Amino acid sequence: MTAVRTVLRRIGFYVLLSLVTAFFALPMLWLVTAPFTRHPTFAVTWPDFTLANFRALTDSPDALSSLYNSAALSLSTMLLTVAAAALAAYALSKVRVPGRGAILYLLLLLSSVITGTAVMVPIFQLMFRLRLLDHDLGVILVLTGGLLPAAIFILTDFMDTMPRLQEESARVFGANSLQVFGHVVLPNVRPGLATIAVWAVVNVWGDFLVPFLLYRSPDKRPAAVTLNTFYTEGGRPDLALISTFSLLYSVPMVIMFLFVSRRYGFRLHGGITA
Amino acid sequence: MRVALEAVTKVYDGDVRALDELSLEIADGEFFVLLGPSGCGKTTLLRTIAGLETATSGTVRIGERDVTRLPPGDRDVAMVFQDYALFPHMTVADNIAYPLRLKKVPRAERRAKAADTAARLSLGPYLDHRPAQLSGGQQQRVALARAMATRPTVFLLDEPLSNLDARLRLEARTFLKKLQHDLGVTTVFVTHDQAEALALADRIAVMEDGRVRQIGTPREVFQRPANIFVAGFIGSTPMNLLEGECVPGDGDPTGSWTDEIDVAGLRLPVPEEATGLVGPGDKIIAGFRPEYVREAEDGIEGRVEIVENLGTTSLVTLATTGPSVQLTVPEEREPAIGTTLRVAPQPGRTLLYHADDGDLIDDS
Fold first, then answer.
1. Cα gap A37→B223, rounded to integer Å
2. Strand B293-309, strand B340-345: pairing
3. Of A159, A260, B146, B240, which has the highest C-beta tally within 10 A?
């Protein structure tokens, strides 16, 4: 009796696991099959292995250039974020201001607000007044502003663990502050910088709202916004183009993850989401 | 290069006086050791010479130059830290050449100089290793090589041997002394280990609470500690310090001075250099090293409590009616625990200290 019950319990458990796995795997499966299907629907079907959808996509204006826009936007925002966060985190770690913990937590709290939907109207107005609407710089600044608090928060932790004696040693040999920072501090916190960089790229790559609101001209838009334009003349979503473009849109992130985890060998912790 | 400190004071957070009006002079080419218990200010003093701390008041001179307010990089000093502070992301060669890189020496020349210095410290085969791949002793030599590479005028060493295990420490000590002798560079060495200080130093400054308690050659500091603090700190077996009193003797018939003291019931002559400086009734502390204690029929009586084997000798602790007395005995001559001994200091090996301020009583 008990043996039968154990087997039944086992079977039930695996069925449940399969259902959960299927729930998460089906969209992924769709993403890799639909682009190669002539007339994709929302169902996952055996692909026709056609490249017609890719050909159609190259005919669509702005589709491929928007991927380039995404890359440019992600990289510039990442560079600015990493540079600014590294300097700020070093200062915060070095000069112990009273209430530092509170400041950092407040920053973190604000960060979820700054790029959040709630302040989009004032940010839009600010950019309008600064004449930075439809400007790469404006978008980069807003995105960087949103990423900085968390980036500073994470990097400060890395900076805190770095041995002070190394800095002092460099100073005795005649290094100025910038040399201490560049030669000693930055190499010591490289894993932290890599974490921030990956996280910034992923965030910007996936961000829709900020570029959607701040870019006016279609040729400047990044991929996340362009994805929103694939409709048929009848106003229905063009699943062929959407799926194909989605696949192209995901590939760079997958490659980046593989590269980074091989190169730096660090595990991407829960906070990093694509 | 000569190093001179004049009335250097360092105050932390408004009220912690790490250095208190400290003055001393270190001669050119001298191996100078700052010795003291932790918290005595020795490391602060070294860091003040390096420029990592700025003196609250007072003057620091290197050579004829006033460097009190100069940043560390402009003082032409090199420092070796306790845990070496090597750069983990650079190879041994890059670590050694780092000071040269800051001086904008071309890469090829840097590499050649680093290889040269490394070879001198038997680090040749490790030039392309990272510090983490080296043993503690090798890391310490890399730190030394890095300090040597710039040919500094002053070497500052902050307990560089304390992270090595005992055997390696002895080797490194000998090596360091030879290296300093060969280079002839003025060296300031901080340690809390009195044996290390005695072995390495040309002169020692013994520090307590931000002040220098005695400066002298290892022999002076060992044989004639200037106060009971130094007496208790120097020597691998601490000096016996027994309270006593001066008693009338055969000295001055008027009774203004005496030549006899009474320590734990034992009558001892007043040492020559203190003659005429103490009178009957003066409270004193008599100090004598365990090495200079012998058995004597009329000595202080004590029961053998502990016998510690030191190798060629043993340290015997006697429980007396007063404070315990320690003496060393040759190997295989150890008394049995519980037996009674009568001991007295060897003639001429007793030092007298004022009971009130603990300073040595002598005519100098």
1. 97
2. antiparallel
3. B146
Q: What is the ipTM of this complex?
A: 0.78
Q: Please name the amino acid found at residue B320.
A: T
This prediction's pTM:
0.78
d(CA B131, CA B122) in angstroms, rounded, equals 15
Measured between beta carbons, the chain A residues lying within 8 angstroms of B53 are none
Q: Tell me the backbone φ, ψ of residue B30, rounded to 5 degrees.
A: -80, 145
Binned at pLDDT 50, 70 and 90, residue A266 comes out as low
Nearest CA in chain B to A168: B52
Question: What pLDDT, on a 0 to 100 scale, did the predictor assign at position B219?
Answer: 93
Q: Which two tokens stand for residue B279?
A: 């009178």
Domains located in chain A, CATH noted = 76-217 (1.10.3720.10)
Q: A interface mutation test: which of B43, B81, B103, B130 has the most A CBs within 10 A?
A: B81
Which residues of B are less than 8 Å from A176 in CB distance? 73
Longest dimension (CA), chain B: 82
- Residue type at position B187: T
Q: Which residue has the higher pLDDT, B320 or B249?
A: B320
Answer yes or no: is pLDDT of A270 > 50. no
Cα dist from B75 to A175, B70, B231, whole Å: 12, 7, 35
Q: Give the integer Cα–Cα distance in Å for B327 and B307.
A: 10
Two tokens, residue A10:
């086992």
Looking at beta carbons, which residues of chain A come within 8 Å of B150?
173
Quote the pLDDT of residue A271: 42
What is the rounded distance in angstroms from the CA atom of residue B8 to the CA atom of residue B320? 45
Amino acid at site A184 = V
The letter for the amino acid at A197 is A
Q: Residue B16: is it exposed, middle or buried by C-beta count within 10 angstroms (0-12/13-18/19+)?
A: exposed
Q: Which of A22, A147, A12 is nearest to A88 (CA)?
A: A147
pLDDT at residue A273, rounded to an integer? 37
Q: Are B341 and B295 in contact (CB under 8 A)?
A: yes
A156-169: string of b/e by CB count within 10 Å (b at 16+)? bebbeebeebbbbb
Statement: residue A110 has pLDDT above 80:
no
Of B89, B90, B150, the CB nearest to A173: B150
Does residue B55 sit in helix, strand or coil? Answer: coil
Q: What does the alpha-carbon distance between residue A64 and residue A245 come to, in Å, rounded to a whole number?
A: 9
d(CA B177, CA B83): 20
DSSP reduced 3-state for B15:
coil
